[in-house]
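[audit] Reproducing an earlier prediction to check determinism. Same input, same settings, fresh worker. If the tokens differ from the archived copy the diff job will pick it up downstream; this log only records the rerun itself.
[audit] input (244 residues):
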Amino acid sequence: MVGRAAAVLGTRRAAGLGALLVALCAWDALANELPAVGDRWDVAIVALGVIPATFGVVWLLLPVAEARGLLPVAVATGALALLLDLAELDAGANVAKLVAFTLVGFWFLQLFEALSWVVLVAVLIPWVDIASVYRGPTRVVVDEQPGLFERIAVAFALPGEDAAARLGPPDVLFFALFLAAARTFELRVAATWLGMTAGLALTLVATYAFDLGGLPGLPGIALGFLAPNADVLWRSLRARASLE
């Protein structure tokens, strides 16, 4: 499976992915050894550096989005993340979680038969996320079982601190799904990646600026998918409606 994935990705892309995964592991493992900086610098480093680097993994993995057998590989990667977590190898576990959630997102897209399904999800899922964060299961997990949330979330390490900013599994999953959808349905892939990455970065900035405990990530991700492709999506949906 590793050999097939490397062949799909191509030599340069596979090498870039490997280097990026190593760099993310190194950051996760060593960030707390760096000098501490103020909160504003923490936000800037994560928003402008760590978030784009983290979701660069999704970008580099994109060619495998249409491959068969993604779900078993995602489950195996998730199991690896669990083993690494139990072994207290947190940096490796964090990167393995990122890859596992990405592969689940790619696999999930394969269940969608039309672009209209993706658009519907992009319109609805932010509201579900908002309800979950403020009144639903996400709030319950974060408030009552913070250890569980830390264990399943993808962490963005902060320099000089043991604390980290964290992103829940659905955020990574839908980021991967929407990016793969942009590729599958011939939308603006680069603009979609930039839009969703910017949406997450701005969500983090807003959390700091308004002194909030956290904000749902999916509204920014969904908007980052819809906005750069709005004209293309509109024409596609109109064309589909006219055929029906």
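[audit] rerun output stored. Observation attached for the diff report: The chain has a mean pLDDT of 89.
[audit] end
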